[in-house]
Design a protein that fits this description.
The chain is 47% helix and 20% strand. With 122 residues, the protein is of the alpha/beta class. The chain binds magnesium ion (MG).
Length: 122
């Protein structure tokens, strides 16, 4: 049985693929993938994943707004933000809005797995 079901949100197909590979190699199940905030919000409601990995910069609706909507619907939602270099301010904003933690690109497998474990424990 998988450790948890994860919704991957990122507008970069390559980043989604990399995250999927890390998750599947470490006994996590990918519940679904979304490529913008709108899709993320809709899929969260439909799939009810245990945790979301949420990119920040995306078209249509960014990760910060999607995080806010998801947490409004489900105050217990566990969301890990995915940040790129130079997004410190946005990370602070995301943590303020209820994100549990964050990992930075490029992905480090060990860091992704440790962060997931920590977030799911709480
Ligand atoms: Mg992006």
């Amino acid at each position: 049985m998988a450790l948890a079901r994860v919704l991957i949100v990122d507008d970069s197909r390559t980043s989604r693929k990399l995250m999927r590979n890390i998750l599947e190699a470490n006994d996590y199940e990918v519940a679904g993938e979304a490529s913008n905030g709108e899709e993320a919000w809709a899929q969260y409601k439909e799939l009810k994943p245990d945790v979301v990995t949420m990119d920040i910069t995306m078209p249509k609706m960014d990760g910060i707004e999607a995080l806010s909507l998801i947490r409004k619907d489900d105050p217990e939602a566990k969301v890990i933000m995915i940040s790129a270099a130079g997004q410190r301010e946005k990370m602070v904003e995301a943590l303020k809005r209820g994100a549990q933690d964050f990992v930075t690109k490029p992905f480090d497998e060990e860091k992704v797995v440790t962060t997931l474990k920590d977030v799911l424990k709480n």
